[in-house]
């Protein structure tokens, strides 16, 4: 591998230029005079990728090093965002690339815009996986991200007449220069069929699985560069294909149509990402997807084990699998199947090995998000795994019976099989029982996991529960997407913060009162806001004023996240303006962004309401001199690049106890926005770090939410007893935002006045009052700037580097390199 180092390409401007031209000629295959911007993008991407490949080879060596434990991060979603800009930053070649581009007469920003982002995730959970890969690599922990190469990722969102319209995400349309297909790395995956008992040579009873189908998974690798450390990890995504054997069989019988049908079915498995976060009715295809990528990944890990010259006994020391929610938790049954059925390991030994190898991260407490599969569906696709789960369950429950004699209710509660009514497999129970460690994603969330959703399991094994508060990577979320702020910070405290956020960023504190620094800080924010205003004007013809307060809520649209609470406050301001009670109203621009699950009717209606309010205000000069409302279509990582850096105020207003952590809250705060937020998820820890005085807290806490629900919550009374709130709701109902249509928003209003499951009305007054404090604070420029600086300075804890160190120390027992 030292030989390889010598052929590595150089990073001088001249060498980069030559390399780009070379790729243009030999890979794009055009003469530069006919070049499109996308052609240039491809040439630059190949040149940059080449500069990762030499490190790739030496990094593969580390994966072969049998003394290093590898982290296998199993996730159905990886929301990586565009690769090119990030790779340039992490390779440390931004200056040279910029110059090379200039000399070639191409505009680097335009080139970067060409990249179609791989949207292989829904939101927080998928983006967290991407931040973690960045940190794992930056910390030199050998890691493989295992997932699915969806042909179509999360849909593109368009807004027509105020409604969300979904467009298929054809991200592979123009080719993908970042992936390297490994045709020789492929594994068979069985599905369906039945099981059969038999007696082995030694007279032991064994089971084999006789599947109905077999498909094949092919590896597509994407290099993940660490920050300026010559280290590469890989994201290995599986694409499903037909197996040769199956279509040959059909051809033999002359069944051409059947053979092609088989191929189509096989390719369906990795076709499309399910666009739901939070709730999903158990779909056959989704379970097949989960099993498909897990099976390929485990087979791959066993191959690597062999490559290292290790035996199955060494598995828990050679690899640790992190389950990103329950989506890959079938891995527990699959490893048991491989060990017991195929490698003939005895059950107890296999179980010990499995538990040592897996750890499980829970990302939600919402009951509708806890995955469960109906027994018949499960049996139909994974008959052998169901038997294995029964065996795991029966051994587990007999332990519980011994420990808590006569406590039948506890048995019912803890069983992997839910038997109240129709029967289901509860994946969170499988994941918990089959792992040596379980973690929540913020202090509050972990506490609620222990006290509530997984309470019985916590009582059984308190030492298996950990908190790992989420984090985000400062490389992408500050340095790449807020270069002005990054330079200003580096000017004052040096550059080490980029990899040492927790220790170094705090040094900014000493500049919080420095008036010239404050001015520079405001200048950065103002320029970022101006950029966003230009972009919204250019793309959508929207008119927003960079001198107004930018009040932003971007995240998936969901009732528990309460975008409609934000909307109610806007209507409150609207009423005040119309009634000429404009005292204390600070000019604001309300910016929303986020996708609704295509089948989530109320979420889509919330989008419509926001757009309806926006349009009404646009047409009313009396109001729009004070406030504007815009909905930024198709919020994704690429668009996020322009949003977080431009925010003055970050909206984190979920019902307390519902948002497991949030990560957008971190991105905003570390880019200088102040937060208006509830006592929920990581908001609490953010507030502890930045200081109560620098955070706008409002509303009920999780305990109060629980209490009020237990004692009977009556939203209609809240509405009747609050004139201001009543006016707001009545105005929606009157058709003021819907051209007189009094029906359109009824479902939303009925939900709020009926049972208001997320306590929007309960928190309304506290929210409006708190927003009034925000307005007052914003009018004091110096004080606001100081709060903004302190927010950034004190956000060091929320680097994903810190999260990954926590995982290494407490869960994986791996030492960063
Ligand atoms: C079961 C299936 C429909 C499903 C698919 C995706 C269920 C859930 C999800 C995604 C969940 C998700 O994104 N959860 C978020 O994870 C973030 C990272 O931990 C948290 O910050 C955030 O609070 C949580 O909602």
UniProtKB/TrEMBL annotation:
It comes from the Bacteria. This is Alpha-1,4 glucan phosphorylase. Its EC number is 2.4.1.1. Transmembrane segments: none annotated. PANTHER family: GLYCOGEN PHOSPHORYLASE, GLYCOGEN PHOSPHORYLASE, LIVER FORM. It is an enzyme of class 2 (transferase). GO terms for molecular function: 1,4-alpha-oligoglucan phosphorylase activity. InterPro entries: Glycg_phsphrylas, Glyco_trans_35, Pyridoxal_P_attach_site. It comes from Danxiaibacter flavus. Phosphorylase is an important allosteric enzyme in carbohydrate metabolism. Enzymes from different sources differ in their regulatory mechanisms and in their natural substrates. However, all known phosphorylases share catalytic and structural properties. Allosteric enzyme that catalyzes the rate-limiting step in glycogen catabolism, the phosphorolytic cleavage of glycogen to produce glucose-1-phosphate, and plays a central role in maintaining cellular and organismal glucose homeostasis. It catalyses: [(1->4)-alpha-D-glucosyl](n) + phosphate = [(1->4)-alpha-D-glucosyl](n-1) + alpha-D-glucose 1-phosphate. Gene3D superfamilies: Glycogen Phosphorylase B (3.40.50.2000). The keyword Glycosyltransferase applies. Belongs to the glycogen phosphorylase family. Pfam families: Phosphorylase (PF00343). Keywords: Carbohydrate metabolism, Glycosyltransferase, Pyridoxal phosphate, Transferase. SUPFAM superfamilies: UDP-Glycosyltransferase/glycogen phosphorylase.
């Amino acid at each position: 591998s030292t030989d390889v180092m010598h052929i590595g390409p150089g990073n001088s401007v001249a060498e980069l230029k030559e390399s780009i031209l070379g790729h243009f000629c030999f890979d794009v295959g055009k003469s530069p005079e006919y070049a499109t911007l996308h052609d240039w993008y491809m040439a630059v991407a190949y040149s940059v990728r080449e500069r990762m490949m030499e490190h790739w080879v030496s990094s593969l060596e580390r994966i072969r090093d049998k003394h290093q434990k590898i982290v296998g991060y199993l996730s159905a979603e990886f929301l990586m965002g565009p690769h090119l800009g990030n790779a340039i930053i992490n390779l440390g070649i931004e200056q040279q690339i910029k110059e090379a581009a200039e000399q070639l007469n191409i505009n680097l920003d335009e080139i970067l815009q060409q990249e179609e982002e791989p949207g292989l995730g829904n939101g927080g959970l998928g983006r967290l996986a991407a931040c973690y890969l960045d940190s794992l690599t930056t910390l030199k922990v050998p890691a493989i991200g295992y997932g699915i190469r969806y042909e179509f990722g999360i849909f593109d969102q368009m807004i027509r007449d105020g409604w969300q319209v979904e467009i298929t995400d054809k991200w592979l349309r123009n080719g993908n220069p970042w992936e390297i297909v490994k045709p020789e790395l492929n594994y068979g995956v069985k599905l369906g069929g039945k099981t059969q008992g038999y007696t082995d040579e030694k007279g032991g009873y064994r089971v084999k699985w006789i599947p109905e189908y077999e498909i094949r998974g092919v590896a597509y690798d994407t290099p993940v560069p660490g920050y300026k450390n010559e280290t590469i990890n890989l994201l290995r995504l599986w694409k499903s294909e037909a197996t040769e054997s199956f279509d040959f069989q059909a051809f033999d019988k002359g069944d051409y149509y059947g053979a092609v049908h088989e191929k189509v079915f096989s390719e369906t498995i990795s076709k499309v990402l399910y666009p739901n976060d939070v709730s999903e009715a158990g779909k056959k295809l989704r379970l097949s997807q989960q099993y498909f990528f897990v099976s390929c990944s485990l087979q791959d890990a066993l191959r690597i084990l062999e490559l290292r010259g290790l035996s199955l006994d060494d598995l828990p020391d050679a690899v640790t699998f992190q389950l990103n929610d329950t989506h890959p938790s079938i891995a527990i049954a699959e490893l048991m199947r491989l060990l017991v059925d195929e490698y003939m390991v005895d059950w107890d030994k296999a179980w010990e090995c499995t538990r040592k190898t897996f750890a499980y991260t829970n990302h939600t407490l919402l009951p509708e998000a806890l995955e469960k599969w109906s027994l018949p569906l499960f049996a139909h696709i994974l008959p052998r795994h169901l038997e294995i789960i029964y065996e795991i369950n029966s051994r587990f429950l007999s332990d519980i019976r011994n420990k808590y004699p006569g406590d039948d209710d506890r048995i019912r509660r803890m069983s992997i099989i839910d038997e109240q009514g129709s029967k289901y497999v509860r994946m969170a129970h499988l994941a918990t029982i089959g792992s040596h460690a379980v973690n929540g994603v913020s202090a509050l969330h972990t506490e609620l996991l222990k006290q509530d959703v997984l309470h019985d399991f916590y009582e059984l094994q308190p030492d298996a529960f950990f908190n790992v508060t989420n984090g985000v990577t400062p490389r992408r979320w500050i340095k790449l997407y807020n270069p002005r702020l990054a330079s200003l910070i580096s000017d004052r405290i040096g550059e080490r913060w980029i990899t040492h956020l927790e220790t170094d960023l705090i040094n900014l504190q000493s500049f919080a009162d420095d008036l010239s620094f404050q001015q520079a800080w405001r200048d950065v924010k103002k320029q970022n806001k101006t950029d966003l205003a230009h972009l919204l004007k250019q793309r959508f013809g929207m008119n927003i004023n960079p001198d107004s307060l930018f009040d932003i809520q971007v995240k998936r649209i969901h009732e528990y996240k309460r975008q409609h609470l934000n909307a109610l406050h806007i209507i409150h301001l609207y009423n005040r303006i119309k009634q000429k009670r404009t005292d204390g109203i600070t000019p604001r621009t309300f910016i929303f962004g986020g996708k609704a699950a295509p089948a989530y009717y109320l979420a889509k209606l919330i989008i419509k309401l926001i757009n309806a309010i926006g349009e009404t205000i646009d047409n009313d000069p009396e109001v729009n001199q004070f406030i504007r409302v815009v909905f930024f279509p198709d919020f994704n990582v690429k668009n996020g690049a322009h949003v977080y850096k431009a925010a003055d105020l970050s909206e984190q207003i979920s019902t307390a106890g519902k948002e497991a952590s949030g990560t957008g809250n971190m991105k905003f705060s570390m880019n200088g926005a102040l937060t208006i937020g509830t006592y929920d998820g990581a908001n609490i820890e953010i507030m502890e770090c930045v200081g109560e005085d620098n955070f706008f807290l409002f509303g009920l806490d999780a305990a109060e939410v629980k209490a009020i629900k237990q004692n009977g919550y009556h939203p209609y009374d809240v509405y009747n007893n609050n004139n201001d709130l009543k006016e707001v709701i009545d105005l929606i109902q009157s058709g003021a935002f819907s051209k007189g249509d009094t029906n359109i928003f009824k479902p939303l209003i009925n939900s709020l006045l009926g049972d208001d499951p997320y306590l929007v009305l309960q928190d309304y007054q506290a929210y409006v009052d708190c927003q009034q404090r925000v307005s007052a604070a914003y009018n004091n420029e110096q004080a606001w700037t100081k709060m903004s600086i302190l927010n950034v300075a004190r956000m060091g804890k929320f680097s994903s580097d810190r999260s990954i160190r926590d995982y290494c120390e407490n869960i994986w027992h791996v030492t960063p390199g």
